[in-house]
Amino acid sequence: MRRFGLILAGAALVVAACSSSTGSAPVTILPAAPAGSSSAPGATSQAANPTTGAVSGGSHQFAATLTVTGAVKFTLSFTQSLSVLPACSALAKTGFSSNTWSIPQPNTQDSKLNWNVQPYTGPGTYSDTSTFGNSVELTGPKGDEYDQVDSSVGSVTVNADGSGSATFKDLEDSDTKAVSGSETWTCS
After folding, report:
1. Which of 24, 97, 132, 186 qualifies as a cystine partner to 43, CB 3.0-4.6 A?
2. Taking the CB of residue 69, how many other CB atoms lie within 10 A of it?
3. How many separate helices (H) and strands (E) can be counted in the chain?
4. What's the CA gap between 115 and 112, in Å, rounded?
5. Within a domain: 180
6. Beta strands in the chain (DSSP E)
7. What are phi and psi of 17, to 5 degrees?
8. SS3 of 118, please?
9. What is the pairing mode between strands 74-81 and 61-70?
10. Which residue segment(s) compose the domain that 160 sits in?
């Protein structure tokens, strides 16, 4: 049923390289936000060295909020360190590796959304499910897993500054219970 193969294995390596417990804010699972409300954290920017793309004066990070509705409901706000990667705008142009963009993930095993876009060709909106390579997988707070199926719909938007959003509909578990939701992030 799952065809995660090398894409998911590669994403795990990218996430492991990107994640850092040093300086990361704790992950907080909150009740789902009411419809129409915005709980995305604010962000500040840092200047990047135009020659190397490295951020001066410290590390840079994603600050993200994942909201899930359906069979499970939760909101998760977290940060992901990007200190080993290029500055936000350079990362938005190139992606993580091998023409792949991976949406931000928390440094926790409790809940997360794995999602890769490949081939990633730079900032823009990706909604053709063939670019997701069956990589969309949500792990809920109780360890329940929801995967991309033929009827799933999704879209990932990456902006030129590295910020973005992802929306998904109808990821299913083994009992065909479905979840939908979104993730938004800033890069600073």
Report:
1. 186
2. 17
3. 2, 12
4. 10
5. yes
6. 28-30, 61-70, 74-81, 101-102, 112-114, 116-117, 124-126, 137-139, 145-147, 153-158, 164-172, 178-187
7. -70, -35
8. coil
9. antiparallel
10. 5-34+44-187
Q: How many CB atoms lie within 10 A of CB 87?
A: 24
Residue type, 1: M
Amino acid 186: pLDDT: 98
DSSP state letter for 8: H
39 in a structural domain:
no
Whether 18 and 78 have beta carbons less than 8 Å apart is answered as no
CB 64 within 8 A of CB 165: no
Q: Residue 155 and residue 151: Cα distance in Å, rounded?
A: 14
For the full predicted model, state whether its pTM sits above 0.85: no
Residues of the chain scoring pLDDT < 50:
1-58
- Whole-number pLDDT of residue 152: 95
Strands (E), 6-60: 28-30
Residue 70 included in any domain:
yes
* 88: three-class secondary structure by DSSP: helix
pLDDT at 59: 74
Number of domains in the chain: 1
Q: What is the pLDDT of residue 134?
A: 84
The amino acid at 63: A
Let me know if residue 80 belongs to a domain: yes
Question: Contact 134/112 with Cβ under 8 angstroms?
Answer: no
Give residue for tokens 């910020």. Answer: 163
Q: Which residue type sits at 118?
A: Q
